[in-house]
Write a structure and sequence with these properties.
With about 200 residues, this protein is mainly α. It has ten helices and no strands. It has helices at about 15-25, 40-50, 55-65, 70, 75-85, 85-95, 105-115, 120-145, 155-175, 180-195.
Length: about 200
């Protein structure tokens, strides 16, 4: 992924600059327990890829803020007031159910079901997020092998099921939307998983 560049010259509209400031403030130095990298780093990479594929400003902003509801105190209403309903709906659409009584399997199955008929923006942000997650897992897997999966709530086989299910979903939806980028990310995720025998 390289060194984090906070100049982020692709975030150059007033709305994007506002989103970047919002992200920096709320993510602050929060670290992802699975990778040890900051949420800001991950979310910048997701938004950068969305921008690279020439999606709308709203999609780019949603990519930057996609973890904000799940991992900060920001509410849907605050997000909607600040960035509008489209961004808030995309971010909400990629946010997993926080119900602590749900098992990992139930939570992931609910998530897959919820994005099955989601609008294109949700699918794009979800696919890019999963791709970047898979790449980060691969980077660590190349160093320590399958022992990396100890850090997760479930093991390699269940992670494989989840990522493969999403990959198939992105592919089918890419065909439906005639979206070459979704098809591309489906293929990229599958390729990363194959490197880890997943």
């Amino acid at each position: 992924m390289g060194r984090l560049d906070l100049r982020d010259d692709y975030l150059n509209t007033d709305e994007e600059k506002n989103a970047l400031a919002f992200a920096k403030h709320h993510y602050a130095s929060k670290v992802r327990k699975d990778t040890g990298r900051t949420y800001l780093h991950h979310c910048l990479e997701v938004s950068r890829l969305i921008h690279k594929y020439k999606y709308s400003e709203k999609f780019v902003i949603a990519g930057l803020l996609h973890d904000i509801l799940e991992h900060t105190e920001v509410t849907y209403e605050e997000l909607e007031n600040e960035f509008g309903s489209e961004v808030a709906e995309i971010v909400s659409g990629v946010t997993e159910d926080p119900d602590p009584t749900l098992s990992w399997n139930a939570r992931k199955l609910t998530h897959i079901q919820s994005i099955t008929n989601a609008p294109e923006g949700v699918l794009v942000v979800s696919a890019v997020d999963r791709y970047h997650n898979a790449v980060e897992i691969l980077q660590d897997w190349l160093k320590i092998g399958d022992s990396i999966f100890i850090r997760y709530e479930v093991g390699k086989e269940q992670q494989k099921w989840f990522y493969r299910s999403l990959t198939e979903l992105y592919f089918v939806k890419g065909l439906f939307y005639e979206n070459k980028s979704l098809l591309s990310f489906s293929e990229k995720i599958a390729e990363v998983l194959s490197h880890m025998d997943m």
